[in-house]
Write a structure and sequence with these properties.
By secondary structure, the protein is an alpha+beta fold. The chain has 2 domains: about 5-160 and about 290-300, Ribosomal Protein S5, domain 2 (2-Layer Sandwich); about 165-285, 2-Layer Sandwich (Alpha-Beta Plaits), CATH 3.30.70.890. Helix content is about 35%, strand content about 30%. α1 links the parallel β3 and β4. The longest helix has 16 residues, at about 100-115. The chain starts with a strand and ends with a helix. The structure holds cytidine-5'-monophosphate.
Length: about 300
């Protein structure tokens, strides 16, 4: 096999609580992560050296790209000199808090595992993924999961497949994840009091109660991102006026809301679009998904 095609899905944070800071510079987290159907497509081909090209001009194609780093890691872990040509069709917004870069890295790990017939199983790929970024292990498995530690320790919970998601993001606005966490650390100086109700949210997830889940969404990073990014706060308010809770995903600046149906999601999207009335504000309507990375078969590719 010398070419492979993959779907790499993004994620949202239904819950993100910062428990404390760690000696390694990271933060101890408790999160509930959810895969969404908004996805990039990647093609991996055998080639000379590692190369990355991407349909989105803002995405770096050098070794700072997580997909590039995933390929480099596979070369060094398995002592291989084989090259790989990575082509990314980018649909997930960039620097948006949706794990776009991390899921590309996850897809490269899965793709190279196939291309080189390494026979690695998911937990082995997840250990490698953790070396690239905290969200990569979740991107590999996907679905609905509790994530702790840096975000790399995962406990799957029953999948929630039925909910729809409206995502809103301003074009050209990105939040640096290190900036968000460092600002949080400076601002709260170890007094990490959180007002999230993870227990009730888990209960609502277990009983598949979409309306309650929507009301219990929580993200500590909003405390530092919203004061700096006024339009994000206004977008949140516009979602509230449309009758749903708007919550930032990860370190933002994407804001999402949950809906029971596609019809409701499109209605919320239109009401929010009209209320904000900014040509730079873009929306996506998508739904929850239960798989992070998908290898496309020849059959799938024809669709
Ligand atoms: O793990 P990843 O490289 O994706 O994280 C990006 C940045 O986010 C880290 O360099 C760190 O500044 C911050 N971070 C953190 N605590 C975490 C995860 C990420 O402080 N648990």
């Amino acid at each position: 096999m010398d070419s492979i095609e993959l779907i790499a899905r993004g994620k949202i944070n239904l819950y993100l609580e910062i428990i404390g800071h760690r000696a390694d510079g990271y933060h101890e987290l408790v999160m509930i992560l959810q895969t969404i159907d908004l996805a990039d497509r990647l093609i991996l081909e055998t080639g000379d050296g590692i190369s990355v090209s991407c349909s989105h001009a803002e995405v770096p194609t050098d070794e700072t790209n997580l997909a590039y780093r995933a390929a480099r890691l596979m070369q060094s872990e398995f002592n291989r000199s084989d090259g790989v040509k990575i082509t990314i069709d980018k649909q997930i917004p960039v620097a948006a808090g949706l794990a776009g870069g991390s899921c590309n890295a996850a897809a490269v790990l899965v793709g190279i595992n196939q291309l080189w017939s390494l026979g690695l199983i998911l937990p082995e790929l997840q250990v490698l993924g953790g070396k690239i970024g905290s969200d990569v292990p979740f991107c590999l498995s996907g679905g609905t999961a509790i994530a702790t530690g840096r975000g790399e320790k995962l406990d799957p919970i029953p999948d929630l497949e039925s909910l729809w998601v409206v995502l809103g993001k301003y074009d050209g606005m990105g939040v640096s994840t290190p900036w968000a966490y460092q600002t949080y650390r400076q601002q709260f100086r170890g007094k990490y009091d959180s007002s999230g109700d993870m227990g009730s949210l888990l209960q609502a997830i277990t009983s598949q109660n979409g309306a309650t889940i929507g009301k219990l969404l929580y993200n500590d990073l909003e405390k530092v991102v919203l004061p700096e990014y006024g339009p994000v706060e206004r977008l949140r308010e516009a979602f509230a006026n449309a009758g749903v809770v708007g919550m930032m995903s990860g370190s933002g600046p994407t804001v999402f809301a949950l809906c029971e149906s596609e019809v409701q999601a499109k209605l919320v999207q239109e009401r929010t679009r009209e209320a904000v009335n900014d040509p730079d504000l873009h929306f996506w309507v998508t739904k929850f998904a239960s798989t992070g990375i998908e290898l496309l078969t020849t059959e799938d590719k024809r669709r």
